[in-house]
Write a structure and sequence with these properties.
The structure is a single chain. By secondary structure, the chain is mainly α. It has 22 helices and six strands. The strands form three sheets. It has a two-stranded antiparallel sheet with strand order 1-3. Strands 2-6 form a two-stranded antiparallel ribbon. Helix 8 packs parallel to helix 10 and helix 17 packs parallel to helix 18. The protein starts with a helix and ends in a 9-residue tail after the last helix.
Length: 535
């Protein structure tokens, strides 16, 4: 588990090395003693592979001046979750995101934005230097090609994370080695997606299959991950024909061949033993780390804060077993699950009646906690070495995710309604776990009929309950074009029915604004560019 970072952890070394190449020291007659040149570093295959490993590290970043994990953007602003915490005042910037009050000075947005560009900068350096790095026992030509594929994939993934949160952003696909290159124009969304697709196609042509990697390299990007992301990105672009093409390629060449499969038991995906398992397409690798991240910022620990952030604030728990109560699942999400669906219990932790009465367990009417991310083993919460050191991986892409994306593409492209129904039934069948009395086959539930619109709603329902609390929901609502009709305080199907306590904090969802988050003001000051509409 958590394998690829046990070999070499390159948190700040690449960035520091890059600084020695960017300083304008022409006025000095001699180089500074002890400085490292790029040509001095890339002298072996092992060193080159360390740089590739360093490209993964910013995926792990989730704490600098504030916490900024993926779920702050994908869960909290959606109908799946409320901010949580000790009270309404706990985490003012997350409170703003939860209630559509975010402004351009939001620290969560700033840290998230910068972490992704740290990853992009590392990828650009690796792509510049890897082709010229020497080959040896540690880096054969075949391994170097695959390593290049990994870096193309990661750069595409970082840009995808940026574009779905902020819209168009500056496109930088080169090493910034002078101050003249620092300021770059903001690209359009279309230009960003074109670059993402280009990188993913390059990655797909170079990457290895998951089964080809040795066990210690589980967690690296694979050809299957690139195919999955091509399907997903084309769906975000609403290019359903291409989404179907790449989704079918993943089904035919990855799923059908056994490179990936659905875990027999749904919750196995969210245990320590299940990390990098048969359903894992791509996940952030974490491990317990001997040092705290408090006061140090990005890259100081390889553990995750999300475990302690999302564990419940129960008085019966102590030390690192007791959580901070963030990211509360909503009653609306709880009610979305069909009766008997075992995924509800796997996803949503429910305190006892007695525990619900504790002052800090409830948040604006919700007592629930995210069971997928809080590292719960058999209903208990194992101690972790430190709040910042949980070893629990965070899934970014699972096989069921890709199957449902493929089903959506098959439906929306009009190419294969049978494939859309197959995708829906495949995911539901795993959820049944052999119990034929629950989760009927389409269309015999929730009032559906056997037509295109019902199939669309069934796929969206299935995606919500299957992927709940994994950071996808807000982005799904936005790409489907239904964010306002679901989230709006006064007229949204969720917003108008939330608890009175939660509604008292909410602002209305402004269409044309709240689908995106603001470009951080500090970044605009450093690199003048247009702000997103409404901010």
């Amino acid at each position: 588990m958590n394998n690829i970072f046990t070999k070499s952890l390159l948190a700040l070394a690449v960035a520091a090395m890059g600084l020695t190449t960017t300083s304008c020291n022409d006025w000095l007659g001699e180089e500074s003693p002890g400085s490292t040149k790029l040509e001095d570093y890339f002298t072996s295959g092992a060193a080159a592979l360390q740089v590739v490993n360093g490209c993964y590290s910013p995926l792990q970043y989730e704490f600098n001046n504030t916490y900024f994990s993926e779920w702050f953007f994908g869960d909290i602003p959606s109908d799946d979750a409320l901010k949580g915490g000790q009270n309404v005042a706990d985490g003012a910037e997350a409170y703003d995101m939860d209630n559509f009050k975010t402004n351009a000075n939001n620290g969560i947005c700033l840290d998230y934005y910068r972490a992704k560009y740290m990853g992009i900068a590392r990828c650009n350096l690796a792509l510049q230097e890897l082709p010229e790095a020497p080959t040896d026992d540690d880096m054969t030509e075949a391994r170097r090609d695959c390593a290049l594929g990994e870096v193309y994939f990661l750069r595409a993934f970082y840009y995808f994370q940026l574009v779905k949160v902020f819209g168009g952003v500056p496109l930088v696909d080169f090493v910034i080695d002078s101050s003249e290159k620092w300021q770059q124009p903001r690209a359009t969304v279309e230009e960003c997606y074109a670059k993402i697709i280009e990188d993913l196609k390059q990655a797909e042509s170079l990457l290895w299959e998951k089964s080809k990697y040795p066990s210690e390299d589980l967690g690296r990007a694979t050809r299957g991950a690139a195919l999955a992301m091509l399907c997903k990105v084309y769906l975000y672009m609403k290019d359903y024909d291409n989404a179907y093409t790449w989704g079918k390629k993943w089904i035919d060449e990855e799923y059908t061949t056994g490179e990936y499969s659905l875990c027999p038991v749904f919750y196995d995906n969210f245990t320590l033993a299940g990390e990098n398992g048969p359903e894992s397409v791509f996940e952030i690798q974490y491990m317990e780390d001997p040092t705290s991240d408090y006061g140090e910022g990005n890259g100081f620990t390889r553990g995750t804060f999300s475990t302690v952030l999302m564990r419940p604030r129960l008085n019966s728990l102590s030390g690192s077993s007791r959580g901070w109560g963030w990211n509360h699942p909503t009653q609306d999400l709880y009610d979305e699950f069909e009766d008997g669906d075992p995924r509800r219990e796997a996803t949503i932790g429910v305190p006892s009646d007695e525990e619900r009465d504790e002052a800090e367990v409830n948040y604006l009417g919700s007592p629930y906690y995210n069971n997928k991310c809080c590292y719960s083993e058999g209903g208990t919460f194992p101690s972790i070495a430190h709040d910042s050191r949980s070893p629990k991986n965070y899934p970014l892409v699972r096989a069921s995710d890709v199957i449902l994306l493929y089903g959506e593409a098959a439906l929306e492209s009009g190419k294969d309604l049978a494939a859309a129904k197959w995708a829906l039934e495949t995911v539901r069948n795993r959820a049944r776990q052999g119990d034929s009395t629950i989760l009927p086959a389409f269309p015999n539930y929730r009032g559906y009929s056997d037509n295109t619109e019902s199939l669309r709603q069934a796929l969206r329902h299935e995606r919500r309950v299957e992927m709940a609390m994994e950071g996808h929901r807000f982005f799904d609502l936005v790409r489907w074009g239904i964010a306002k009709q679901v989230l709006d305080k006064d007229n949204g199907s969720y917003g108008k029915n939330e608890s009175a306590e939660a509604r008292a904090e909410m602002a209305n969802f402004i269409e044309g604004k709240n689908e995106l988050f603001p470009i951080p003001a500090e970044e605009i000051n450093l690199n003048p560019m247009d702000q997103n509409p409404g901010y």
